UniProtKB/TrEMBL annotation:
Enzyme class of the recorded protein, top EC level: hydrolase
Molecular function terms from GO: beta-amylase activity
Similarity remark: Belongs to the glycosyl hydrolase 14 family.
Species assigned in the record: Punica granatum (Pomegranate)
Protein name: Beta-amylase
UniProt entry keywords in alphabetical sequence: Carbohydrate metabolism, Glycosidase, Hydrolase, Polysaccharide degradation
Amino acid sequence: MDKDPNIAYTDQWGRRNYEYVSLGCDTLPVLKGRTPVQCYADFMRAFRNNFSHLLGDTIVEIQVGMGPAGELRYPSYPEQNGTWKFPGIGAFQCYDKYMLSSLKAAAEAASKPEWGHTGPTDAGHYNNWPEDTPFFRKEGGGWNSPYGEFFLSWYSQMLLDHGERILSSAKSTFENTGVKISVKIAGIHWHYGTRSHAPELTAGYYNTRHRDGYLPIAQMLGRHGAVFNFTCIEMRDHEQPQDALCAPEKLVRQVALATREAQVPLAGENALPRYDDYALEQILRSSLLDIEGCPREDREMCAFTYLRMNPDLFQADNWRHFVAFVKKMGEGKDLHRCQEEIEREAERFVHVTQPLVQEAAVALMH
């Protein structure tokens, strides 16, 4: 990247992001004669060969990295150096020469060459809000114009194509090894209540009040038998800043409906470390897909990843809550046993594990 900065994602101000190779050069031989996708495939093969004795038994799921923080998205809200702060709208990441070259070709194919010179120039800055910008505002915003529809279709399709390429490699590499493949999608819940859903758009999810951006992602994962792994499962709408129209519960509901329609398994994780009963209860509800608007049926999340193991988890109250939570998660839809009985079992387990927990907490401190 030092020799060819264009293989890094770039914003309209020329700021480079070195967290992930730009998907604009996925199929170009920019890495000493090889393409990034070839390199990813080589890495996956090396992983399979080295860990073949553990696959399907100890290792039962492989989450395939697709972008920054391992998520299928553009690095539109980088927190390093204070570039972006919650709940800013983020910025489009399509200004390296490879992305611009693809945009130019797409504009020419659409007989609109004038649309191919640059991304939107009126989409504000990382920390703006939608109404601050001509592109994202609700009335007459560029996002809802013919140009906006062309640009956002191209930008989101590039991300879907990237996911498709990497999943094709992953599927052929790990076929018949007994492991599931999963892909992580970011839970971008801020400004979800606006018409344009600006932070989702800059991240590459073409989701607006008029368009479902998660169904195409679910369908792409479905074609490769992958699990849709989603975050912000622990959040409730009213806990978030309402002036930013955050709606994590509505977002989780939309994703649950999209995965159901695409017949793709849904897995979850919490976005922020939480140890309180209130958040753990919300995770239980979400994992059972007990979501308003989702018809009750024999369907639940296929997996849940809990963040995070650290000294706080092993504090006495937090550990007690966590043990009861794990027991309830294990019951799943069969959670009809007496709650007191589960709590008593949890208490016994907490008592038995006390010395081990103290040891773990000390080890993590060091």
